[in-house]
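Listing S7. Sequence submitted for prediction.
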Amino acid sequence: MKWHFDDFIYGSIDGAVTTFAIVAGVVGASLSPGIIIILGFANLFADGFSMAAANYQAAKARNEFVQMKRRQEEWEIDNLEEQERDEIREIYREKGFKDELLEDVVRIITSRRKVWIDTMMKEELGLIDDEKNPLESSVSTFVGFNLIGLIPLLPFMIFLMMGIESNSDAFIYSTIFVLAAFFLVGMFKGKIVRHSMLRSGIITLIIGGLAAGVAYIVGYGLNFLIS
């Protein structure tokens, strides 16, 4: 099975933020660590499955859209050949090709049907025929969501197993853990796309940290107003 790292990273950040939001809200309400863990795991599986299902449908819909547009271009090339050839000519004229060189480019591209269709898809429609496997995409999202989304809950689980019921201490560790998770996910992303791992880690930490901060403020603020 092929992993889709963009979906994994997307799920990872979302999982960490949403779980941290629940942790922040429940800590703000001064509920027990057991409640935090129950609600956290419920969020992991429910929201993780929801995200995976949505990603599956999105990937499937995009694949179907691209294929529909490809069939449309195939029909136009088969039935409106000269018009489509003129479109290729106009595309490359705008890129600066002229006279004989322009005609050579048009002739070469239109001499191979697949190249012709691929060129129209990319240059005219801005679509690249790089189908994602919807199942692989959804599984990558689900695993990322649950794996990294579990991190904010770990201090509460450890404290509970040790018989320590201190939400404030556990929450401090939870905050540190989730920020570290953002940084590591960012470094991982940087390694995959061959960018600076440190810079990517810092950027993801800032973005994820801001999202986690908003989650904490909203969760704590609502519980303060309600209580």
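Caption to Listing S7: primary sequence and predicted structure tokens for the chain studied. The chain has a mean pLDDT of 83. The two ends are 48 Å apart (CA to CA).
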